[in-house]
């Protein structure tokens, strides 16, 4: 009987030990979760601190900012930096030009690039491979700045608002991403629509375009950020017409003026003589960064849910 009890107790003890093992090792998940949480908090702080510090510096007195030691709270709160940014009346018109440019560029780029991507995704289209190759080559080779300027001049786009919109209507990179995404859509949807008598444009508008919303939201964010942040084309093509100046170009001129005014007090173009001695390039740069970033930060949360999905699905083909 004693041997039987010993033999029977062996499996029972093994079962009890195996049941106790997860409970006894419960310290490991706790340590992992604690370390993971602390690491993510540290990562969030490191990511957000530069922008938070920029906001704080933009609300701090310029002369006091030079001393350093400004971290998460302004030492001498002031609105003088923003007053210097908005002192010029041209910045409001430049803001409207930037908004109009961003909206039109985004809408046209999304619609035309998607239409072209749908055309090049059709296997029955004979010239889809040569045309795709031509677009891909434009991603590697560029004619250069001077030939591009003469092209805009020959097209009568110098000092014309359309110079902000027409050159960016089609993007080769966006074309490849959208075409790859369209390739993931079942071909049976297109074939069934053709049987019902739908034409190519109706198939594109009623079926393909709505199904591409995730990748289109991603592309729209790319195009909008690029159009909003662009200032060099305004410097090249519309610098002689103040009414066509963009917000980024005006902010760039303001920052340059603040640097010149700081190095030479007699120079106060753009900043204003009453603000030239009260702001510094560091404080103006912080205020300019905040003014230029806020509109994009207001748009991004609405597209965030599509961003990762659209980029991953649109860039991988099975």
Describe the protein in words.
With 318 residues, this protein is an all-alpha fold. The chain has two domains: 13-81, no CATH class; 83-315, MetI-like (MetI-like fold), CATH 1.10.3720.10. Helix content is 72%, strand content 0%. It contains 15 helices and no strands. It has helices at 2-24, 27-58, 62-65, 80-85, 90-121, 128-137, 145-154, 172-182, 187-195, 200-211, 213-229, 232-237, 247-263, 273-276, 281-315. α5 (90-121) crosses α8, α11 (213-229) runs antiparallel to α15 and α13 packs antiparallel against α15. The protein is flat. The N and C termini lie far apart (66 Å). Belongs to the binding-protein-dependent transport system permease family.
């Amino acid at each position: 009987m004693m041997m039987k009890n010993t033999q029977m107790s062996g499996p029972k003890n093994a079962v009890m030990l195996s049941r106790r093992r997860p409970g006894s090792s419960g310290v490991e998940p706790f340590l992992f979760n604690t370390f993971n949480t602390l690491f993510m908090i540290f990562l969030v702080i490191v990511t957000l601190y530069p922008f938070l510090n920029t906001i704080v510096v933009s609300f701090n007195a310029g002369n006091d900012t030079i001393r350093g030691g400004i971290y998460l709270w302004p030492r001498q709160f002031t609105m003088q930096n923003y007053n210097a940014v908005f002192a010029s009346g041209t910045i409001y018109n430049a803001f409207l030009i930037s908004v109009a440019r961003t909206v039109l560029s985004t809408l046209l780029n999304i619609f035309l690039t998607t239409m072209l991507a749908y055309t090049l995704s059709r296997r029955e289209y004979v010239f889809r491979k040569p045309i795709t190759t031509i677009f891909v080559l434009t991603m590697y080779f560029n004619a250069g700045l001077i030939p591009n300027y003469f092209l805009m001049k020959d097209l009568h786009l110098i000092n014309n608002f359309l110079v902000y919109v027409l050159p960016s209507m089609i993007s080769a990179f966006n074309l490849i991403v959208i075409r790859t995404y369209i390739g993931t859509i079942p071909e049976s949807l297109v074939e069934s629509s053709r049987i019902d008598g739908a034409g190519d444009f109706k198939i594109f508008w009623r079926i393909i375009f709505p199904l591409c919303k995730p990748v289109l939201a991603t592309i729209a964010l790319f195009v909008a950020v690029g159009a909003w942040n662009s200032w060099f084309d305004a410097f090249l093509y519309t610098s002689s017409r103040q009414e066509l100046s963009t917000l980024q170009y005006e902010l760039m001129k303001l920052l340059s003026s603040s640097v010149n005014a700081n190095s030479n007090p007699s120079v106060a173009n753009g900043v204003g003589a009453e603000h030239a001695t009260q702001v510094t390039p560091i404080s103006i740069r912080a205020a300019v960064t905040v003014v230029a970033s806020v509109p994009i930060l207001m748009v991004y949360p609405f597209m965030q849910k599509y961003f990762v999905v659209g980029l991953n699905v649109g860039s991988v083909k099975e």
